[in-house]
Design goal:
Layout (H helix, E strand, L loop, with lengths): L2 H4 L20 H15 L3 E2 L3 H9 L69 E3 L10 E5 L15 E5 L7 E2 L3 E2 L3 H6 L2
Length: about 190
Amino acid sequence: MNFCTLRHSVRGFPANRPSQPAIRVAWQESVDFCVWLSKKTGFQVSLPTEAQWEWACRAGAATPFWFGSLDADFSTRANLADQSIQSTKHLIKFPHSAAWNDGQSIVTDVGLFDANLWGLHDMHGNVSEWTLSTDQKTSGSKIVRGGSWRDRPQYATASHRQSYPTWQRVFDVGFRVVVEDNSAAVALNQ
């Protein structure tokens, strides 16, 4: 058994506070939440496509991160595997970027790190995010983007992709939603 998948948090390092992103949510549960939220609000809510996710992540930048290159100091911009991950002495020692210290050992509160130029937080790091990567009716794997607190920078770039089975509740994967703004369409039809 892989120790880090069973014990990604230990006493003193909570991973389920209300201010933290939801994790261990399967892809289908994320899609079901979007359907529920659409019905509740009357807005069209979905997971982002990979193209939408990357466009939002980059915020106009052409570099691997919205804030620069692979060797850029991410300590105020992304919760990635760095010096601080080693403070979780009960966890196995993860490969990490020794040059930086973001001060966070595992998943942390949403919005703690700087937003990108479009005001979006945590596009790199904290938790990886499910996308609508392929036909929703297929039962294969789906793509997550963004990397998490346990990933080194090269696995958290705007273009990096990783896949998991749709049923898997991954310890460092969550999701964000896209809410379509229908106000312009409504105004045109009036």
